[in-house]
Design goal:
By secondary structure, the protein is mainly α. The protein contains 9 helices and 2 strands, in the order E-E-H-H-H-H-H-H-H-H-H. A hairpin with a 4-residue loop joins strand 1 and strand 2. Helix 2 packs across helix 4 and helix 3 crosses helix 9.
Length: 206
């Protein structure tokens, strides 16, 4: 349990994140206030730099896969998943960047589609059907996010809900998140291939 010293008294708080909320609200006036804030800013900047590096490497890897350069793609993917664990966000940057790339590919397809146009949705479900177990979890997670954002039509919701029974994929998602860095290389490559296949289904000339 963390302890925050206000100007009047010591106040126990439940965890470090709550302590940081006190700092952000300006309620902490202890002697280490500036040190704690500086430390948090350093961690945040490291986190942002790691995320940007992972995204840049995987974006290049995706282009390499599109061009058929498997060797260069694998080198870039390996570099991305080898980035240090992000203690601030509690994620592995390469693994998380791949997840976000899939989610953004789906989200952008929704934004670009016409109302009641299921082209993107059919392409996503086709990729889902062809994916390995771990990538199925990625599709499920991303599609569930779109559902929670109310980005889907009633017809699409019915089709998605038929696949996403309550609690489905939660244990699998935990297992994928806890996977070792060694497992990340093939997993990230599979996610990138799923993105590439999805985009080619939407835009056959790619």
């Amino acid at each position: 349990m963390a302890v925050i010293r206000s100007e009047v008294t010591f106040v126990p708080v439940s965890d470090d994140s709550q302590a940081m909320d006190w700092l952000g609200a300006g309620l902490y006036r202890g002697p280490l206030r500036d040190v704690v804030i500086a430390s948090n800013l350093v961690a945040q900047r490291f986190s942002q730099a790691s995320a940007a590096a992972a995204e840049n490497l995987l974006d290049k890897a995706l282009r390499s896969l599109a061009e058929g350069d498997e060797v260069r793609a694998n080198v870039l993917i390996t570099r991305a998943v080898s980035l240090p664990f992000d203690e601030h966000e509690e994620v592995r940057p390469g693994r998380w960047a791949a997840h976000m790339m899939l989610y953004l590919a789906l989200s952008e397809a929704v934004d670009e589609s016409y109302e009641d146009d299921d082209t993107w949705f059919d392409a996503a479900l086709a990729g889902w059907d062809e994916a390995g177990r771990d990538v199925v979890v990625e599709f499920a997670s991303s599609m569930a996010s779109l559902r929670s954002e109310e980005a889907l039509t009633p017809h699409q919701l019915r089709r998605l809900n038929a696949r996403l029974a309550p609690g489905l994929h939660e244990e699998e998602a935990d297992e994928v998140t806890a996977a070792t860095a060694d497992r990340d290389v093939p997993l990230v490559r599979e996610v990138l291939m799923a993105i590439l296949t999805f985009e080619r289904r939407l835009r056959p000339r790619l």
